[in-house]
Amino acid sequence: MSTQTMTGQGVLIPALKADRGGQVLLALLLIAAVVVPIFNLMIPEGSFFHLSTYTVTLFGKYLCYALLAIAVDLVWGYCGILSLGHTAFFALGGYAIGMYLMRQIGPRGVYGNPILPDFMVFLNWTELPWFWEGMNHFPVALLMVVLIPGLLALGFGWLAFRSRVTGVYLSIMTQALTFALLLAFFRNEMGFGGNNGLTDFKELLGFDLKTPGMRVALFITTVIALAVGYIGCRYVIASRLGRVVQGIRDAEGRTRFIGYQVESYKLWIWVFSAMLAGIAGALYVPQVGIINPGEFAPINSIEVVIWVAVGGRGTLYGAVAGAVLVNYAKTWFTAAFPEIWLYALGALFVGATLFLPKGVVGLIPARKVKTA
Amino acid sequence: MIPLPPLLRLLMRLPLRRCLLAAVVAVSLPLQADDAVAPAADATAETTAEAAPAAPTAFPDVIRALGTASLSERTALLEALLATKNPNTAAVLTAWLEDHLHVRDADGAVFITAEAESNYALTDPLTMAAAGSEASEGFTKIGSNNNLRKLLRSALASFKLGNPDAAVRLAAVQEMLRAPDELTLTMLREQAKTEQDPAVLKAIAAGQAYADLTSDSADIRLAAVNVLSGALDGETLAKLEALREEANEPDERVRSAASVAISSIAVKRKFFSAIETLFFGLSLGSVLVLAAIGLAITFGVMGVINMAHGELMMIGAYTAYVVQQLMPTHLAASILISIPTAFVVSGLVGIAIERGVVRFLYGRPLETLLATFGISLFLQQLVRSIFSPLNRSVATPEFMSGQWVINDALSLTWNRLYIVVFTMVVFAALQLILRRTSLGLKVRAVSQNRAMARSMGINSDRVDAITFGLGSGIAGVAGVALSQLTNVGPNLGQSYIIDSFMVVVFGGVGNLWGTVIGGMTLGVAGKLLEPAVGAVMAKIAMLVFIILFIQRRKQGLFPQKGRAAEGH
Q1: I need a surface site. Which of A71, A167, B106, B307 has the fewest CB within 10 A?
Q2: B103 in a domain, yes or no?
Q3: Contacts of A357 in chain B (CB under 8 A)
Q4: Per the domain annotation, does B21 fall within a domain?
Q5: Does this model's pTM top 0.90?
Q6: Which of B81, B38, B86, B37 is nearest to B63 (CA)?
């Protein structure tokens, strides 16, 4: 089925040409990829123009969130599936890379065990659980980053879409999914570090994670991933599969009656979105240096949805704008007025749904933008 | 002469040195004629006790003598004390046993003391009236040794055995059986002859049987095993287990009787523990139902996703807290008052949410979900600002604390029992409103076919607001109930919201009976799973089960039928 629907090879270039917001975004990403290393690494620390490594990591984090927001926008904005559990995929991707990073610590842990991570030694485990085998190989970890969220999404989506669970029911189910995972990962017996999660990472591919050079490299990787992810999503949307998916969003019953297998289309876009979220998580963890079960919290997933709503759903670049804007505001508020942040976030939820149905990008006067 | 005793007492309270005090007592003595005034009476008694320590018989004299007697003399005095049959004896014995009986060095008067900071609060053993408080330095403890304590205990118990209150007698029997010996057993056998209360008789019989288990005669042991086979408690079970070993029990008949008794006890205990699990499940289910039933109205009847539902429960819980702060001395009344108060407060907040936000979003359920989630964050932070982020606890009134002990193997906590009952009452009231009032009729009409209802002259806007208010008010009432089970904090609502949605979806949207049965099923199933896999895994299993269940029957246990179903 996928080969049949993905045939529109010549759709990407026209789609990008018509996508002004996307052009701006890609241009900004390109500028960031060039400017950030220069300002961080080349300009000396005392200078006014110096960009601290902290800021680089902070923006790298925002861009990971932006990739996650694109993944949510893909299913919500284009397929009408409101996922309240996308951080589950994000966190699973993060755990996959976290396991690799844990194995890289080797004998440098507190207990000095060359094989077992510290928390396992602490729990008196004597051998590595089977699912930790092979995670010391980077390619295996990368595979798991997309495979595990993809498989979970496939199983969940297959069950849910096949029996036509839609709308708020689906949203609540996704929330239950991430909540169940949250509870599961809190358990020490799961073998993922329990409450504390995975942390204390040392190096990635032999490079020390704490050096500014490595931070910049991670930032650029994130920029590239976001650009590629954006273009990939744009391609999927412009393809025949994407058009059918938008048809499903607008009139699921009609699309089905015309003869499309609605379930399969939904499933593929759902799995693709979950994999993107997994990649975003994998980029996030080396930059923040920790992954713990808190990432599974349902509230995080709902926050992602609000980024998309604030930015403007169904545009992709709006999701990026929303993720960066809201998170920047969060960083600023939680530092300056920690009490006010939740009020502001609450007001943002209400205000965005009531007054900004098209998000902030909807405020920019539309020119001749036509995607359809 | 009349104003003198108070004056004397006043002087006694002052921290005077012994000589000065003695002087005052001496001066006051000739004027003293009233025996009821303790210090003076004691002062007279002192001289008698010192003069003839042999055999005091009157209660005041015996008490007096205790102060000066040596340890060995005290045994004799104990018997004399019991012989007086004075009603205050029990209090004196208890105080003695607990090292709360002191003699005042100044005049040799004996008091029951209670420590209050560095002072002693004094109680006169003759009148049981409070006698002021004094610095503890001026007192000497009337001590006891092991032997004396043993005597004291059994004396106290035998004294209590004569108490008209059966509960006191039962406690005494249990106390005596903690370390039974020939003396106590004889006392109990005597008691059994006159005892009327079945619980006390049963306890005595069990104690006798315990003692008989160590008898030399196999027949007596056999009879004891047969008596014990009717018991339920773990102690009996342990004793019988020991008898199954050949090393402990040489007689074959007794061993097999013990085995039979154990299996019969085990079956009964299993039965009662199953009932207990069922009860725990029902009470957990009640909490779920209570949390979900308001949601069943807003979500089920109106099709509105209210993510702030948990926060409306939190508001109800905080209302209970505030009401209790306003009337700290009337716990029971404050809980009863907070139920309607919480209903009104949460209901008003709900109506405000509906009028302010939700009504602009009808027909856009996903947007409603997000907006109400924003409201929930807002309310949480509001509560944090007003009441601080720390948890508050709402005190449990007397009638809800403690346990209802049914037998040795089964006891149910009152607060959980009340919550089961309360849930039923709330559910019945809600059904009554929806089925028997004109408001309920309108609510059902609007939920089934809004356009048709409007054309029949129903103001659907008003009905929406009231329905939302009703659902929110129920959430507030649920919050009051929750305040009795957990601490009240800003995150109270969050922890229940996912569970509540699960219950509503599982039971079938738009169906209150479905919510009740769904909630109870999930509660009982959760508690049944818990011992096997642990609480967290049980919860995960339930979530996964519902996710899978919804795939099979996406309309829940009790799907809506007919035209109403098409609206959702």
Answers
A1: A167
A2: yes
A3: 367
A4: yes
A5: no
A6: B81
